[in-house]
Amino acid sequence: MTRFSAAAAVLLGCAPLAACSMSVDHDEYRSRADVQIRTPVGHVLVRTGEQLPDTGLGIYPGSVPVRRHREAESANVSVGNSLFGVKVAAANFASDASPHAIVDYYRRTMGALGEVIECRGNIDFRRSRPVCHSRFFSDSRTTQLAVGSESRHRLVSVKPRGNGSEYSVVYVQVNGES
Asked: What is the mean pLDDT for each group of 10 consecutive residues in the chain (178 residues)?
């Protein structure tokens, strides 16, 4: 009877693993990857190298995707289950335009979504709104823009790069469908 109990316990313990799945597709030629992990308690989905991730913001005209070291130039990430979820879409771009021109473009574009906060420092979300924690006497050459709430917001970070600019566009959604 103890052998039967032990075998039953092992089978019951392994049963949830049968409901798990994992898929990894990697295209080195196009620098793309697609990873999906699904379990009975949640999922993780990662897609990298997409031309335009779903940030809800357009790309500044003439910009090109930029890659830092071995990082992908863009990614869509979703982690969650039926009770909680986080979705992040992000992309990095370079442009011949000045940082000022790109900041102006995104300030106008993001203005249609709500009050835009501009910051040369860190952006935090307090009481569901973006708050700038600027650094006094900072020589930060990076300008950040934020719009939205803690649970759903968009960020743009712009800095000089040579004679042009490098910038990142990010969308974050928490607690929604992921």
From this structure: 48 53 66 72 75 84 80 74 83 94 96 91 76 68 90 92 93 72
| Distance, CA of 103 to CA of 97 (rounded, Å) | 10
CA dist., res. 13 & res. 33, Å (int): 32
Residue 161's identity, in one-letter code, is R
Segments of 3-151 assigned E as strands: 21-27, 32-39, 42-48, 64-65, 74-80, 85-95, 117-119, 121-126, 129-134, 143-149
Sort residue 141 into left (φ over 0), alpha (ψ -120 to 50) or beta.
Answer: alpha
End-to-end CA gap in the chain: 46
Residue 128 structure tokens: 């569901």
d(CA 49, CA 116): 28
- Say how far apart CA 70 and CA 55 lie, in whole Å: 22
CB of 59 within 8 A of CB of 46?
A: no
Cα–Cα distance measured from residue 178 to residue 20, given in angstroms and rounded to the nearest whole number: 18
DSSP conformation class of 66: -
User: 157: phi > 0 → left, psi -120 to 50 → alpha, else beta; which?
Assistant: beta
Residue spans of the domains in the chain: they are: 17-174
